[in-house]
Amino acid sequence: MPHIQIQEFKEIPFPSEEDGIRFDFIATNVVHPDERLIHAQSEDKSFFLQVKRGDDKWLLKSDKVTRVSPNIHIKKAIEAYAKRANLDVLFSNLAHKESHHRDKESALKPIDFFAKTFPEANEIWIEVGFGSGVHLLHQAKENPNVLHIGIEIHKASIEQVLKQISIHKLDNVLLLDFDARLF
Q1: Does residue 168 lie within any of the structural domains?
Q2: I want to staple 50 with a disulfide (CB 3.0 to 4.6 A). Which of 11, 28, 63, 105 is the partner?
């Protein structure tokens, strides 16, 4: 999970914007005042960053509940907050290069894409809960004339399948990070 360790947490004025990331507000946990959530927006993604105080340092990371895919949005938000607040970073696991699977035409689509412009195809196969993506990717390779839609809520699975779609240059797979019951 993307994160940085910092010497001291500093709050920025809200709302603020840095490097295309908008920070709307901060919320403090009333039971644990050393835990906070920062609301962030990157492109069409809305999520929280979590700030936690340790024994002698702080941790700035993705909130597990609102974590989004692809996680490049989280990495950019953490970097932008650190820059805006001029934080002293002790450790970072943020890659400084963008993943090769993060193309302009990503296979990961928001629900609005399907609601407004549902893709047309002679045949559409939907896999709910594709997990590791082995079956979904196999079917896409074996059936190139079929549009494959994979629905998953597990962020790590989505990231892995996005990488594989790019590596194998599959143009017949779309992914959705959404509750399949509502889809």
Answers
A1: yes
A2: 63
